[in-house]
Specification:
By secondary structure, the chain is an alpha+beta fold. It is built from 5 helices and 9 strands, in the order E-E-E-H-E-H-H-E-H-E-E-E-E-H. It has helices spanning 46-63, 76-85, 87-90, 103-107, 145-160, and strands at 12-17, 20-25, 33-38, 66-72, 96-98, 111-112, 117-118, 120-125, 131-137. Strand 1 (12-17) and strand 2 form a beta hairpin. The radius of gyration is 17 Å and the shape is globular.
Length: 187
């Protein structure tokens, strides 16, 4: 079953954010766009490259009104330790959400049960708390924050313009399509 257009299931978790531990729930997501960026584990190899890329692009997400949550099955204490010991992770300004109970990873269907780790899952959640984009990569394939930004812009555009769709490779400001019988077989 697809998670597209489903509501985020209830959860409560602790995140490490700006030197503090904060509580985050599904209610924290309402009223703004959000990205949940699952990754397997702290103190690993591909994960810091992805999280660092997100950190480098975080201001662009914020300009779009998007909050980013890095999520792994590590504890919030481990997130703090990694933040304090890694130059790459130290630049992260977005919340690092802890999922040691594995509940959030199960809810988003990214849990690798036999390992207790999350797949590389990316989820864009609209202000109503509904999932609009789902992307899952194999563990050895890192993601690109600039491509994620493009997808978020497209999701925000079609949410604001429900009679239009964004074609492949659409970039902000480019032409969109208005689905109609006249377009069938002409694209």
């Amino acid at each position: 079953m697809s998670l597209i257009n489903t509501e985020v299931k209830p959860f409560k978790a602790t995140a490490f954010h700006n030197g503090e531990f904060i509580d985050v729930t599904e209610a924290s997501l309402k009223g703004k766009w959000n990205v949940f960026f699952f990754y397997p584990a702290d103190f690993t190899f591909v994960c810091p490259t992805e999280l660092g890329d997100l950190a480098d692009n975080y201001e662009e997400f914020k300009k779009l009104g998007v909050e980013v949550y890095g999520v792994s099955t590590d504890t919030h204490f481990t997130h703090k330790a990694w933040h304090d010991s890694s130059e790459t992770i130290n630049k992260i300004q977005y919340p690092m959400l802890a999922d040691p109970t594995l509940a959030i990873s199960r809810n988003f269907e990214v849990l690798i049960e036999d390992a207790g780790l999350a797949e590389r899952g990316t989820f864009v959640i609209d202000p109503e708390g509904k999932i609009q984009i789902v992307e899952i990569n194999a563990g050895n394939i890192g993601r690109n924050a600039e491509e994620l930004l493009r997808k978020v812009k497209a999701a925000q555009y079609v949410a604001a313009n429900p009679n239009e769709v964004c074609p492949a490779k659409w970039q902000e400001g480019e032409a969109t399509l208005a689905p109609s019988l006249d377009l069938v077989g002409k694209i």
